[in-house]
Amino acid sequence: MQFYKILRQRKINEDTFCNLLDIQNYDYITGNNKNSFAIKYNPDNYNQLLNNNRIFKEYSSRAIQQLFVTNQKFLAILNFSEIFNMSMVSCLFVEDEENMYLEEYEELSVESVEDVVNRYGFNIKEVTYKTYDSKRTIVLQKNGVIGFDNGLTETEYQKLLNFIDTLNFGLRVIDV
Amino acid sequence: MKKPISDFINKTIKIIVTFLVTLCTAIISSNNTNIVYDFLSQHGYSDPTVQKVVLSAIIVAVIAILQELLGLLYKAILWIIKCYFARLTVEIGYKINNRNTELIKFKPVGGEYEEKQLEIELKIIPAGKISIFIFKILKLQIEIFFNPQIIDVTLINDQEWINENASTRVSENQAICINVLENYRLGGLSMKPYIMTESIIILPKRVKRDTAYIDFKVTSAMGKKFVVPYVILI
Predict the structure, then answer these.
(1) For residue B145, with 0-12 CB atoms within 10 Å meaning exposed, 13-18 middle and 19 or more buried, which class applies?
(2) Per-domain residue ranges for chain A?
(3) In the prediction, which pLDDT does B227 show?
(4) Average pLDDT for consecutive 10-residue bins of chain B (234 residues)?
(5) Are residues B74 and B153 in the same domain?
(6) What is the pTM of this model?
(7) Mean pLDDT of chain A
(8) Weakest mean pLDDT among A58-67, A109-118, B95-104
(9) Which of A66, B2, B25, B133 has its CA 20 to 30 A from that of B174?
């Protein structure tokens, strides 16, 4: 599984940060909107990249913001899983290390996740999805890191990019 | 510097008053057929010295009364200004887990920082009706931001993200912009303070030993009061 950290460039008039990543030979994917992108992630490499002062200067001047997925975003986007050709297969909470609370519900659904959030005030840590066609796994973590298996179909890959854009810019991307 | 100026003003007023009294007395008394002289002559006071003294006493009294009236008017204007233009006060407090916070520390776990949830509490104390009216029209906005800009901010309740009208949003350079009077209705009689809270998630942009301070600016600046917490990254 490959992991990418979702970022958004907020200064839109500047040239994109991805040009700089090309020079650095750093792996990334861009969304359908060029200001929404995700860069290959593991904590060490990511820190190494940003601790390069020249790169961090470029990073800051373009007002790049890392995505943080709040409960509000997790729940809202879960309601639209179908649009992205995938369905939830598991959900973890920060406060529920043993992963017991969701097991008490008959079925795993947006409603049961929402119920745990409302009832106990838990924060969603990560949601795992399965794609409809290729049955590949996609994981979204609260710190804006997304992981996906190799072998997504072309449609699923396009939907994944749309998913990243929606997380960055909000529900107006899918116009609901 | 205040005292010498007020002394100067007081003395100048006295000089002007004396000058006016003398001038009026001279002008009126030079005319031998003025009302005061006629009135005094009719009542048997035809001595010119007595007539002049009475005239000057009347002028002094009239000018003193005028002076008092002006003073009263001045005070009334001040009072109106104070009532209608008094400053609006906004107090800003920061809380983590319901406790007031002045310092937030981040420690890396596995090469990453864990996010922190911060509650921003704004206490708005309304004052002059006209100033509130002006601020509402100007869309008084408080911008809270981290300086230097090394922290990313996410709203817990992000109306803009779910495509709805938002009175709080995060700007391009990661400032939380709160429109404090958006839901305040003008024309009410109560001037009681009210509290607004906004929950945010803060997460440093990179793992590095650094310090940032919370700062804010007001788009239409008036009264302000605040505590400055800061964030340390280790």
Answers:
(1) buried
(2) 2-66, 71-168
(3) 47
(4) 84 87 80 78 83 84 89 90 82 89 91 93 86 82 90 94 89 89 82 91 93 83 48 62
(5) no
(6) 0.79
(7) 93
(8) B95-104
(9) B133
B116 and B74 in one domain? no
Structure tokens at A37: 């992108």
- Indicate whether B146 and B198 sit together in one domain: yes
Mean of pLDDT values over A70-93: 95
Q: Which domain holds residue B75?
A: 2-84
Decide: A111 and A78 in contact? Cβ < 8 Å. no
Rounded to a whole number, what is the distance in Å from the CA of A71 to chain B's nearest CA? 8
Residue with tokens 């008039």: A13
Task: Indicate which CATH number applies to the domain containing B163.
Answer: 2.60.40.10
Two structure tokens written together for A34: 């060029």
CB contact under 8 A, B152 and A44: no
Q: Classify B45 as helix, strand or coil.
A: coil
B170: left (phi over 0), alpha (psi -120 to 50) or beta: beta
Do B65 and B145 lie in one domain? The reply is no
The minimal CB distance from A47 to the residues B111, B154, B161 is found for B111
The number of CA neighbours under 13 Å toward the Cβ of A148 is 27
Q: Phi and psi for B16 in degrees, rounded to 5?
A: -60, -40
> Which listed CATH number (3.30.60, 3.30.70, 3.30.1370, 1.20.1510) goes with A2-66?
3.30.1370
